[in-house]
Amino acid sequence: MISRRDFLKVGGSIVAWSIVGSEHAVAAEDFTGNPDRVGMLTDTTRCIGCRRCEAACNKANKLPEPKTSFEDTTVFEEKRKPYVADVQSYTAVNRYEGEDGKPVYRKLQCMHCDEPACVSACPVAAMKKSKEGPVVWDEKLCIGCRYCITACPFYVPAFEYSSAFDPKIQKCFMCYQRIKEGLIPACAEACPVEAITFGKRKDLIKMAKQRIWGEPDKYIDHVYGEEEAGGTGWMYISGVPFEKLGFPENIGITSYPKLTKDFLSMVNLTLVSWPALLGGFYLASHQKPHAAHKEESVKEEHKS
Amino acid sequence: MNEYAGDYIEKQIHRQDEPSNSEIIGNWVKDKIFLGLPLKEYLKTLITPLNIFAGIIVFAGIVLILLRFIFGLEMVTEASNEQPWGLFLTWGLFSGVPFSASGFVIGTAVYIFGLKKYQPIVRNAILLGFLGYLFAVVFLMIDLGRPWRIYYPMFISFGTASVMFLVAWHVALYLSVQFLEFSPSILAWLNQGKIRKIAVSMTLGLTIFGVMLSTLHQSALSAMFLLAPGKVHPLWYTSYLPWLAFISAIGAALALMIVVSKLTTIFFKHRASPHYLESIDEITLGLGTASSFVLFTYVGLRLISITHEGAWKYLDSPIGGWFLVEITLLAILPFLYYYGVQKKKVVLIQFTGVLTIIGIFLNRFNLTLITFNWQLPDRELFFWKEALVVVAVVIIEILVYRWIVNRMPVLADHPDFVGDGH
Questions:
Q1: B1-31 b/e with 16+ CB inside 10 Å = b?
Q2: Is B35 a domain residue?
C-alpha cells in the first residue's frame, strides 16, 4: 500500500501541477474591442437582387466557376446558403416576399460578430476576431473539428467534406486582404445601388439610424446586428420585419462566449477542490497509529 | 516476495537447458501471445463462426474508413454544414465517454474510499474505461477534418476560451492516466515485478488526478452544447447540462459494470478467479444501490432544470412526445434498482443495468443528434455507411478487450501478485 509520505509526494505535485496547468483555462473576457473596427451595413430596401455582389465575391476570392451563371435569377426559387457547391461565393442573395407581394432581397454571409461563437468554440484559435473587424480563419492551425459550425447561430461556416487532405473552413472574411491593402470589400464595391456600405462600425450605426429617422415610414425601427448576439460587424436595416427575411428569431443579445464562461470558470475550482477533498478523506480514513505504535506500523508496511 | 522465488527457479531451469535466444523469444510469444498453444493450434481456435462474422464486418468497416481518408468525409457520412457532427462523435465521444467513467468511479470507490468489496472488478473497470477513451480517440481521428493535427491543441495553438480545448486536453491526459492505472496488469503479464511496484505506488495520485479530469471533461462534453442554444431543443438545453452529464456518466459507468460483470461470468468464466465469480452477485447489489441513488439525483435535477428553463410548454409536440419516452425510461430506472436491491433480485438489477445503458445512449443521441437543429426541416441523421463503420470499430474494441482479458490478469489475480490489491 501507499504510505503517507508517498501520498504527500504524489498528491502535492498533482496539486501544484493543476494550479500551474490551470492557466490554460482562462474564461472568455468581456469584449471591449477596437473602437475603430470596421463593419458592413446592408440596406435591404435598396437591394435589387442583381447578384453582382456574388459574382464579385467569387472573383475576389478566386473561387471556382458556379454551376449556374451569376445572372441567372431562377436561383431565387430556393433559399440558398453561402458557400455550397452550386453557389461558389461566400455570399448568397435570397428573395423573400415583402408587403403587397413585392420582392425583398437579403444578402447572406458571415455576420462578423463582435464576440463570435465560432472564435470561442475553436480549440486551436484558428478562428479569430481580427483587430480590424473581420472574423478570419488560419488554415495553418485548423484541425477540422467543426465546432465553429456547430456553434455559429447563423449557420455560416462551411466545411469542405469532399476534401480528404486539405479541407477548408469556408466563409466570408470581409475581404480581409483587400481591407489591409486599403480597398473596400468586393461586394460593396460591386453593388450598383449602394445597398452595401463599408465603414467603421460606429459610423455605420449612426448612418443606419439616420436613414431610419429620415424615413420612419420606410424602415422598421431596428438595426439588426447592433445588439444581436452581443453585436455583429455586419448589420441590416429593412422595410419588412426581419423574421420575414429569414433572420433567426431565437438569437438574443447575449454574446455567445458568455454561454460557456460560467462553466469554464468552474475548472480551476474543481482542479483545486477535488485533490483537497479526496486527499483529505484518504488521509482521514487511512490514518496510521502515531509515535508509540510507529515501529509496528513500519513492520506492517513491509509485510504489505 | 513470490516473484524473486520465481526468478530464481527460472534461472535454475535455464542454466540446465541453456536455450538459444530464438527459443526464448519463441517460447515467450507462444506463452504470452498464443495462450500457450503452438501457432497452428492457436490459429485454429480463432476460426469460429462468430470470429468470421466479426472479421467480415471489420473488413467492410476498414474499407469505408480508407475511403473516408482518400475521398473525404462526404464519402461515408451524412455530415453537413447544418449538422457537422454525426454518428461518429455521437456514438464514440458523446455516448462512449460517459460509459468510460467506469475506471474513475470504481477506482475512486476502491482506492480512495477503501471499499474493498469492489476490488474484484476494479481492474476490469479501469480496462473498460481505458478502451472507451482509446476508441473515443479513434472515432475522433476518423471524424476530424485534419486528424494529423490532433495534437495541435496541446502543443501548437491554444484556444483557451473553448470548451473543446478543455475536452482535448483532458481526454489526452486521462487516456494516459488510465493507461498508467492499468499498467500493473500489463506489467504482471510481462513478469516485470520491479517496474510494477512503481506503477502500483502511483495508484492513489493517479486516481485523484483521474477524478479531477473526469469531473471536468465528462461535464464539458455536454457543456460544449451550451454554445448552441438555438439548435439544442429547449427540453434538453439547460445551464445544468454539465452537471447532468457528470451525474449521468456515473450512472452509465455503474450500469456498464453491472452488465459487463454479468457478461464476463458467462463468456470469460475460464479467465476469472473463483473469488471473482462468487463476488459478482454481492457487487451487483452494491452497484444497484449506488445506481438507484445516482439516478434519483439525476432525474430530480433534470426535472428541476426543465422547470427552471420554463421548457415544459414544448411537451405538446412530436419532439415533446419523444422526450417523454426518454424521461419516462430514465425515471423508472432508480425505482427498479431500488426494488431490485430491496428484494435482492440480482437479475432484475442486471436487467435494469441494460435499460440504463439504453436510456443514457438515448439521452446522448437526443441531445447531440436526433433533436439537434430541431427547427430545421428535413434533417438527415446518418448514413448507413457511418453506422457500419461504428459497428466495425465497436467489434474491434470488443476483440481488443477479449485479447487483453485472455492474457492479462483482469478478472483474476496474477499468480505472482495474489491479493496485493492491484
A1: eebeeeeeeeeeeeeeeeeeeeeeeeeeeee
A2: no
